[in-house]
Amino acid sequence: MDKKTVLFEKHADLTGKAQIVPFAGWFMPLWYRSIAAEHSAVRKTAGIFDCTHMAVLKVIDKDAANFLNAIATNEISMLSPGKAQYSYLLTPTGNIIDDIIIYYIDVDNFMVVANASNEQKVKDWFSKVSTEKIGIDKNWQYKVIDLKDSTLPDAKVDIALQGPASVQCIKNIFGVDVSTLKPLNFIQLKDKGFDLIISRTGYTGAKISFEIFVHPLKAAELWDLLLEKGKDLGVIPCGLGSRDSLRIEAGLPLYGHELAGYFNISPFQAGYGWAVKLNKKNFIGKDVAVKQSQNFDTEVARLKIIGGKGVRPIRQFDGILIDGRCIGYVLSCAGVNDVQIALALIEKKYNNNEQQIGVYYLARNQGHIQQGRKDKAVIGEKLDADIKGLVVERFEKF
Amino acid sequence: MKIMLPQNFYYTKDHEWAAIEDDVATVGITDYAQHSLGEITYIELPSAKKHLKAHDILAVVESSKAASDVYSPLAGAVFATNDELASRPELVNNDCYNDGWICKIKLSGTPDVKNLMTAAQYEAYLKKI
What we know:
- The structure holds two protein chains of two kinds.
- By secondary structure, chain A is of the alpha+beta class.
- Chain A has helices at 8-14, 35-44, 64-71, 119-132, 166-174, 219-230, 240-250, 267-270, 286-294, 366-370, and strands spanning 3-4, 20-23, 26-29, 46-51, 55-60, 83-90, 96-106, 109-114, 143-146, 157-162, 186-191, 194-199, 209-214, 235-238, 298-306, 319-322, 325-336, 339-347, 356-360, 387-392.
- Chain A has three domains: 3-52 and 152-248, Gyrase A, domain 2; 55-146, Alpha-Beta Plaits (2-Layer Sandwich); 297-398, Aminomethyltransferase beta-barrel domains (Elongation Factor Tu (Ef-tu), domain 3, Beta Barrel), CATH 2.40.30.
- Chain A is globular and about 60 Å long.
- Chain B contains four helices and nine strands.
């Protein structure tokens, strides 16, 4: 049974039940007003997102840093209090368990934020590593705690505030100026009965973007405050739909699509090799990661394709063609204004700016198959392009 | 959110509507369906003269999130399509029961409405899902 987040009642008040859908085990809003309006708000003013379904863990005690450095691919020693880092958890065979952000709160206190869809897998992995002492020293002292547990005084869940008006919105509520906070840096703030972590992080590509970690029992109050004090600034609630179109436009990967998933895409193929520190003495999965880093023929590319009203949207697994030959597959796609932005897995040699590509629409239903349309494209196969596009820079510059 | 339901129309479990006048049914998708799909960006219209059994695929309505098949509520032959939707699919979002109609079907024989719902029945059905 899908669970309701601590903000469920807010969504039910703000939108119709048709727009609240099961996602990663939670009932989540797909949109409130419209995906396009919410996308545009994040680019021009700001939007808030319910991310309280995301996993938030705390790793404490004297060997917390050693433990995290052994299980995560990035280098913990590059962190200091108030800094956060993007990283991966790998299996010993090099498969991605999840992509995470690690927040250095203190020398013996770290917060780890993981995908909602991978919450149980991450927790199970942490226990397995600890019980079976996989890649860790048996004498290390550390403890992993579920920070979403609302009985904890320092419990935390995530609400994202993304877009240029975010700074003023936070100022309106707490009188604090976060404009000088650098990307991946965070502050702790105790005010108005809130005990917050405000970090300059996000998943929309917005330059000015924050995630606010708040006690689950105070989340609804903060949600209301953000909307009330942000109203005149154009701050609106945003759902999963715009979260997806924003992250696709920005070029950010989603676990299961541009990372791991059907094609088992590695961090190197996704364009995030920098978050896997191969010069680190050891981390779980390092041997395979070294090989992955040296040898891959396909990688994630960002494509710009004709779009707008009246154009059939491109979907996952549609074929990417060059000169009528299939060289890759669509992983994710979103309509943004009058174009479609897609992330695709394509042969590396074609992942060059301005490279012209075509897209083959797979059959959308049985009728299409009867008319001779394929329901699966095969690399190397000759296909006729239904629509044209270009490879663009891997990440959008806003 | 209020779902609009014209009283004299027939409805299906897949959220199509049919307005029957003599031997012609005008067909579209319901307000509930257009709300669920979100911003509709593309509609594949049926070819004219296409003969359909009840529940054959009539059209495909696509938003950024989903491609949804539209099934024919009744048996008959398509004799008119709303070609305006090719360039203005948003008409289905804005006015699904009027300007957003999808096609007109010339019914074969007496309309077989026993598998369709009245507005009251459809309203009750929506409450359950």
